[in-house]
Amino acid sequence: MTEALHVVTQAIVEIRPDLGESPSEITRHSALFYAADPDQPVLGLDSMEALELIAVLEREFGVELADTGIRIADLRTVGDVADAMSGAL
């Protein structure tokens, strides 16, 4: 697990402790909100949890997403978030 993926996973568990009960369920392919593919794992974050996730990740990585080329609408999976945060450093 890459460092960025680990930090993103920990941030998600911080926001949604119920997801920490089965950390193996949070993978790079886990959808943050919903998935078009019924076989894709879905974390089911709501809009407030998404805002919390952004705030936690900005603090953890020391970046402001507004100052990067990252488009929040493009962040659909845990892997998307980890890759975006790695690229922002």
Please provide a brief summary of the model.
It is built from 3 helices and no strands. It is mainly alpha-helical and 89 residues long. α1 packs across α2 (47-61) and α1 crosses α3.
Low-confidence stretches: none
Count of DSSP-assigned helices: 3
Rg value? 12 Å
Shape: globular
Beta content: under 5%
**What are the secondary-structure elements, in order, as H or E?**
HHH
Number of strand elements: 0
The overall average pLDDT, rounded, is: 88
Main sheet overview: none
Class by alpha and beta content:
mainly alpha
Instruction: Classify the helix fraction into a percent range.
Output: 40-55%
Alpha carbon gap, first and last residue: 18 Å
Characterise the protein shown here.
With 89 residues, the protein is mainly alpha-helical. Helix content is 44%, strand content 0%. The chain contains three helices and no strands. It has helices spanning 3-15, 47-61, 78-88. The longest helix is centred in the middle third of the chain and has 15 residues, at 47-61. It is globular. The mean pLDDT is 88.
